Amino acid sequence: xxxxxxHSAEFCANSSRTALTITRxxxxxxxxRDGAILKAVLPYTARQFGRAIIMPNLKxxxxxxxxxxxxRHRILAARPVCGPGSAFEPLMTLYLTDNMSPDEVLxxxxxxxxxxxxxxxxxxxxxxxAGVTDLYHCTAALEAMxxxxxxxxxxxxxxxxxxxxxxxxxxFIDRVLEPLRRDFxxxxxxxxxxxxxxxxxYVRDADAAPGTLxxxxxAHHLLLNRNAILVGGIRPHYYCLPVxxxxxxxxxxxxxxxxxxxxxxxxxxxxxxxxxxxxHACGCAGCYTAPYALELYxxxxxQAGALGRLEGFASFHGADFYELPRATDTVTLERxxxxxxxxxxxxxxxxxxxxxxxxxxxxxx
Length: 365
Prior knowledge:
By secondary structure, the chain is of the alpha/beta class. 34% of the residues lie in helices and 18% in strands.
């Protein structure tokens, strides 16, 4: 029995719901890549979510508003032509660099389609070689973001090789996040894909003005701990950054996500990679959860006995943080046992779905 199946054994027996209807949710952290992969993966997100914050870490990073605009057009062209997902809206971001100018920040804010600037410290994850070497170099851009209300989205890990990989998020809070918030108190900040008790406590308890601090949480970090990667053999499709942590941290994330606290909201960090680059001597980091993301979140909330709070986490808190209207349509999930989907073919490139187990217990209607 694998790590997910053991959690499935805890499946919430005290819930009698057979269906759950919620306001259509949004995904506040998503990778869709480009080219054939984009065309293959986007429809899965579009049928579930009304909008998504699109990550800018392509092989050629999206560093300007003009680049974000052309990437947005490619995403729009990959939407289903009609039916579910045809109205999906990509919310674009820029990739923060040491030399981003205040003028670029202003162009982004005035564009009407850029909703944030993403911080990757150099080398922290996939396609982050062009990332920030020192936040000190970004002072002018950060001041412009604070002035113009453009959020900073942070991959919250330090890259210091002397710091254990399981501790890099906690150290990031002390070395980067806390000084940043001290120096830019009105800057809107999203601490993305948090994975630790320390991060959950920090976001919940921080002294921050309303609407200036938020955090996304992935479904895979709610469902799995690090045993899923290591017990019984290496499982590369569970490898992601930030890496899965101990069970105490998973439980802290579940508590945060199901608490109803408005600072926590849904962000899948779904990250498709070709199968041959995941099953590799130096495999890529990233979990591709998009085909059944909402079902995974429903499963996590159901296991916690908190289905009634899924709508706030998935549909309201993120929209409120980004000061966007909440959706007006709904989606319905049914309680049914089904087999997770097959791998995705992207023009002869196989993308492996996040197979946390063969059986799921909620299905999007």
